[in-house]
DNA sequence: TATGAATGAGTATTCATTCAT
DNA sequence: TATGAATGAATACTCATTCAT
């Protein structure tokens, strides 16, 4: 009888190790050996679950944006869209305090999207869903469809841009308050 | 008889070759050989001007943000800050249509800033000057200093965020019109 | 209650899988994993029967030449040695049409014999028995012992050489007719 | 000014190192590192001249059979074909005493031809030219074209077969005398 | 007997960098 | 100033082999 199937525990192990190593060394600078060590496996052990580095990068990329999409589901629908968004920003902001590597690895993936079509598709899909989630909220609050689409784009851009500034300042910035006042201004 | 100093023509040659190669292959994925070939030099020829790859990366990083700072000087000071900013957005947007690699290489450098302190300093300095230039414009138009700082941050974030969306959509988006309507909303 | 001994069925399974894989990928290029898959076993399963790859190679080598020695027993003894040999050539030739991998794997083993003493012993022993079987036939037909030894060597060389040409031409050559006319010429 | 072009000396250096290493360890077992060391170069130095192992193997294969084709040009044309061939066999036999690795590497390539189409083409082409050179000699001596083709095939097979036996016996066999008596018998 | 999981020890290949000219 | 030649130090990826079950 063979050993029990361990993939359900190995895969998260490997992906979170990869996130850490990718954040420190960059996607291209990361060594499979370091990912393996971080995951507590041998190099060959990683290759048992991902057939090469590209596959691992893609898997993490997808997991990363899937996790971000999860966050979008938390956007509360209701009237007073501004307030709903502000509530959500608080949630996201709180989450950002933890998971140090999360933002960094995100920028790694944005850079990757700049030169890899497969990665760009994933990123674009994420932004479209992001925008659509916010547009829905605005429509539910009475905005017309056209205006909502436009406003949603502005809000997404603003929030992503603040994210960027936040990273440039090594997280030493008050994400939530800037984001909330920006959103209020956009929707005023 | 010393040979003529060619560095004033070699250095831009090399930097623009590097920008192209970094955009295509990533900063870490780029090979010195490809930079050299793109610049029409031999590998060793590049090393005459940059002592190693890190020096080349840093030089391009600095040139890149210096060029972006140049763009900030074009922000026209005057009353009706909104209109001044919109004029400027049109300028920047027109420039973005050319220089394909410019945006991509920018994201490479953001990712680099995520894991390299030297790069982060350059990036942060850029954002501070960016913000300060816009704050000045707002103050010149009558905004109080405190409010101007905050608004400037929001504007910078918005514009950078739109930049990001623009890249995710491979430049198939109307940067200028979204930027202008966003800025108008923020300043309304 | 001991489980039934499956070696009598596993071993031919493994050896014939190995023959196929060795023929396709070469002795050194063959992977234990592929042998196992071809045999319908797990990798570890193969190791139950052969303690390592060398042992498997040696076992197949020995089986291969033992099978060839079997063929020598079919050489009919009697007068009119030429006719007896031609009959035998027809038998061998018919067998060659089947078992595609058989010839290829044979050349793998000859190459192996070129650099491995153990393999060379097996190969040399085979040729000596080959030669001796043919010499016996010639002696039975009245040739003197000395002349028979020499003729036998020539015949073995001729047949092996034709085999080689046959392989070079991917089997698209009439082995039997060339072999028979060659043998007739040698014995005329 | 760059260093002078060294390829005319490096390439034979590398190929003869490769021949030696391939003979000892087999084509597949040979390590690029060992080839490099034997050639007195670094691993990367070998890759400067051959872009990968396959290219090196193919180059050596071609050189090997080109060298063998050279030997065919030494077959003297004239009447008394048997005697001409015997003279040639003496030449070839003398050459075989030197170049230890020559035969071994030849068998490596035959095995390779068994599983690689590109290699097989080279080998087949060699045999066709071999056969044609001998057929020409026979025709020059009065044999009809059809008979010459058939005889040539038998002779080639015989000589290659003796070669094989010679290798199996580690060169401890009298190649020339067996070859000559075999050829005489075939042409009697 | 049988196997999926795991790995140590390789192995081909790459690339930043140096150097002789 | 300029470059082809050369290499040391990586690094992705592989595979024979072992082991827990």
Topology, pairings included?
The structure is a homotetramer of 188-residue chains.
Chain A: H1 7-25, H2 32-39, H3 43-49, H4 53-73, H5 81-97, H6 100-113, H7 117-140, H8 145-168, H9 175-187
Helix pairs in contact in A: 1-2, 1-4, 1-6, 2-3, 4-7, 5-9, 6-7, 7-8, 8-9
Chain A binds a DNA duplex (21 and 21 nucleotides) through helix 3.
Given helix and strand content, the structural type of chain A is mainly alpha
Count, helices of chain A = 9
* Count of strand segments of chain A: 0
Question: Which regions of chain A are unreliable across 5 or more consecutive residues at pLDDT < 50?
Answer: none
Biggest beta-sheet profile of chain A: none
Mean residue pLDDT of chain A: 94
Binned strand content of chain A: under 5%
What is the H/E string of chain A?
HHHHHHHHH
Question: Can you give a write-up of this model?
Answer:
Four copies of one chain form a homotetramer. With 188 residues, chain A is mostly helical. Helices cover 78% and strands 0% of the residues of chain A. Chain A contains nine helices and no strands. Chain A has helices at 7-25, 32-39, 43-49, 53-73, 81-97, 100-113, 117-140, 145-168, 175-187. In chain A, helix 1 (7-25) packs across helix 2 (32-39), helix 1 packs across helix 4 and helix 6 (100-113) crosses helix 7. Chain A binds a DNA duplex (21 and 21 nucleotides) through residues 1-6, 10, 31-33, 41-45, 47-48, 51-53.
């Amino acid at each position: 009888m063979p050993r029990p199937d361990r993939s359900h525990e190995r895969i998260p192990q490997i992906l979170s190790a990869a996130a850490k190593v990718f954040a420190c060394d960059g996607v291209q600078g990361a060594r499979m050996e370091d990912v393996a060590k971080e995951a507590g496996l041998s190099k060959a052990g990683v290759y048992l679950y991902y057939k090469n580095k590209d596959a691992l990068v893609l898997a993490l990329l997808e997991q990363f944006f899937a996790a971000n999409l999860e966050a979008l589901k938390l956007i509360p629908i209701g009237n007073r869209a501004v307030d709903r968004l502000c509530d959500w920003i608080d949630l996201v902001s709180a989450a950002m305090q933890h998971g140090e590597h999360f933002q960094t690895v995100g920028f790694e993936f944005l850079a990757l999207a700049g030169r890899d079509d497969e990665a760009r598709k994933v990123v674009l899909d994420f932004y479209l869903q992001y925008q659509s989630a916010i547009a829905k909220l605005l429509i539910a609050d009475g905005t017309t469809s056209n205006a909502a689409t436009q406003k949603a784009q502005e809000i997404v851009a603003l929030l992503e841009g603040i994210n960027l500034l936040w990273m440039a300042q090594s997280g030493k910035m008050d994400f939530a308050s800037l984001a909330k006042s920006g959103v209020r201004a956009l929707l005023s």
